[in-house]
Amino acid sequence: MTRLADRTAVVTGAAQGIGAATAHRLAAEGAAVAVVDLAEDRARAVADEIVATGGRAVGIGCDVTDPDAVTAMTTRVVEAYGGLHVLVNNAGITRDNLLFKMPLPEWEAVLTTNLTSMFLCCRAAQEHMVAARYGRIVNLSSRSALGNRGQVNYAAAKAGVQGLTATLAIELGPFGVTVNAVAPGYVATAMTAATAERVGATPEAHQKWAAEHTPLRRVAQPSEIASVIAFLASDDASYVTGQTLYVNGGAR
Questions:
Q1: Helix, strand, coil abundance in the chain, percent, nearest 5
Q2: What burial letters (b/e) apply to 197-209, b meaning 16+ CB within 10 Å?
Q3: Contacts of 1 (CB under 8 A, 6+ apart)
Q4: Please, what is the Cα angle at 217 between 216 and 221, to 5 degrees?
Q5: How many CB atoms within 10 Å of residue 137?
Q6: For residue 224, what is the DSSP state?
Q7: If you placed Cys at 168, which of 36, 159, 179, 237 could pair as Cys (CB 3.0 to 4.6 Å)?
Q8: How, if at all, do strands 135-140 and 8-12 pair?
Q9: What is the CATH architecture of 8-185+220-247?
Q10: Helix (H) or strand (E) holding 61
Q11: Do the bridges between strand 177-184 and strand 135-140 make them parallel or antiparallel, or are there none, so unpaired?
């Protein structure tokens, strides 16, 4: 499948989990992929994996909460590949705690990394997309946007992602740029493993519990989220914009 031939994509938080799976999927569909992560060595490792399988990729270290770093990263990608067509905002962290125990720095860290970084990356990318009158932006939200005990900061940020997405779809639509969000449920990643440890469970036990509360009776794999992102990044989704698609195995 070459739905993304001649496209250039940026994927943030791409050194592991959903981000790495998405980078691999977009490359497999023909895109040149900038694998962006705070940890440059790990970003390069994922890029090397893509290149080893015949894809095009470069690993870039970038603090996506730093406006100057985001601008420099975007410029580097455009200069290397001649354009920027797809942006996948995936970078995120958790700092879980109940409200009465959550210090302000943990609130601010999650809002800045999970929401402000998307604003910065979208702002940098839209300059090139608007000029080309073409673009695909996919933002990672979460089922936690509907509320999740112990994640007031994360839930607020992910709900904000949905508002950001809907608004940018309105603003950028006239220029041929679509903006959508994907809201995964439970996905087997390092982040959910850390959540399991927070509540005193093993990742295996926590996944088993989550599966029992999901109609499909299993948790998702990163590649399953990546396939939805790839659809929204392609021209198959050319008339889909401003939407948040929940990918959660039917959980309510």
A1: 55, 15, 30
A2: eeeeeebeebbee
A3: 28, 29, 30
A4: 80
A5: 28
A6: H
A7: 179
A8: unpaired
A9: 3-Layer(aba) Sandwich (3.40)
A10: strand 56-61
A11: parallel
Which amino acid is present at 161?
A: V
Q: Write out the two tokens for 48.
A: 């090397």
| Residues in the chain with pLDDT values less than 50 | none
Return the domain boundaries, the chain: 8-185+220-247
Tokens 């029992």 sit at which residue? 212
Label residue 10 exposed, middle or buried (CB < 10 Å: 0-12, 13-18, 19+).
buried
Active site residues: 154
pLDDT at 138: 99
CA atoms within 13 A on the CB side of 112: 12
Helix ranges, 53-185 (H): 67-81, 104-111, 117-132, 152-172
State residue 179's pLDDT score: 99
User: Under a CB-based contact definition with an 8 Å cutoff, are residues 135 and 178 in contact?
Assistant: yes
- The pLDDT value recorded for residue 187 is 96
Tally the residues of the chain.
252
What type of residue sits at position 62? C
